[in-house]
Amino acid sequence: MRVYNFSAGPAMLPIEALTVAQSELTDWKGSGMSVLEVSHRGKDFVACAAETEQLMRDVLSVPDNYKVLFLQGGASGQFDAIPLNLTAVGDRVNFINTGQWSAKAIKAAKAQGLDVSVIADQAASGYTDTPAADSLVIDPSAAYVHYTPNETIGGVEFGYVPNTGEVPLVADFSSTILSRPINVADYGLIYAGAQKNMGPSGLCVAIVRDDLLGKARPGTPSIWNYAEMAAADSMLNTPPTFGVYLLGLILKWVADLGGLPAMAERNRAKAEALYGYIDASSYYSNPVAADSRSWMNVPFLQANADLDKAFVAEAAAAGMTNLAGHRSVGGMRASIYNAMPAEGVQALIDFMTDFERRNG
Ligand SMILES: *Cc1c(COP(=O)(O)O)cnc(C)c1O
């Protein structure tokens, strides 16, 4: 029996894609081997990787002057790879700090010798909101502006794209990529670990504008050098083959459902149902500002925090797993990525209603 898995990542994946992978697992394309066992240099896998890249381009409407890279080391690896690829030691960069993932990216940029200026920091609200769009003052001499469109732990999502003028915008899309349409041309660099909304862990996707390539610091490890990876079709070394294959299946699933506009409609409806229920309740609450609430990660508290462990355990017993909040914030968190059906959100709401009736 499949559960409704509310994990923040690795997260629930669409059963349709998993079922295709299962049916092909022991004999992929008549090869007598699984996709896990074939050479990444063989024609079948090279075609598979090219197809996944094309699907990514189609689904996200990636312009021709952007490279799509399949990398390893997770989004965390990019926290260091971005400074190595885009800057020299001592360069000025701007960061927006909306929570724990922003903070990790800032720490890495400092460790790579950058002159980091944090142009907005939401500490005053306890990282429960985003800065006003017109409050951002970009330093025109900055090599880039970095922000986190969706903070997975705090459940804080930008309702707008920061306008950085000529300064390249760099965005950690790990927990919101493919959840709604975006205009790739607004960004210099987009990166995302796959394990939230795109597939299994071990694969990280970067979408980089051509003019940002070729500036890597001397000594940058080749596998993290975007220009070298682009020139080698992301196969400088053995890529995470199963991840690339499964991403392709998931992108087909997204396309079959109507692409990102349809995903956005599904995700908006799920989020509205859950926030609407929480807001109408006097027992549950969500701390995030109304215009900054994440469609993907919904943290919530109950009036009696002593019952958090019971809530999480009883929900799991009822087929709704991984509802504990991040260890740093406590409470509960429901991650409702693309693969979470509306029925899963309704089941959670029904459980919350019943739990409050019994304990509230
Ligand atoms: C999960 C996550 C990361 C870390 O991803 P790894 O692939 O584990 O390195 C970074 N940023 C955000 C926004 C995330 O949600």
Tell me the β content: 15-25%
CATH architecture of the largest domain: 3-Layer(aba) Sandwich
Strand order, largest beta sheet? 2-10-9-8-5-3-4
- According to CATH, what is the topology of the largest domain? Aspartate Aminotransferase, domain 2
Quickly count the helices.
Answer: 9
> Please, what is the CATH homologous superfamily of the largest domain?
Type I PLP-dependent aspartate aminotransferase-like (Major domain)
Q: Into which percent range does the helicity of residues fall?
A: 25-40%
| Shape designation | globular
Characterize the quaternary organization of these chains.
single chain
Largest sheet: 7 strands, mixed
Describe the structure.
The protein contains nine helices and 14 strands. By secondary structure, it is an alpha/beta fold. It has two domains: 15-256, Aspartate Aminotransferase, domain 2 (3-Layer(aba) Sandwich); 258-359, Aspartate Aminotransferase, domain 1, CATH 3.90.1150.10. The protein is globular and about 60 Å long. 44% of the residues are buried. The model has no long low-confidence stretch (mean pLDDT 97). Bound molecules: pyridoxal-5'-phosphate (PLP). Residues 9, 74-76, 101, 148, 152, 172, 174-175, 193, 196 line the site of pyridoxal-5'-phosphate.
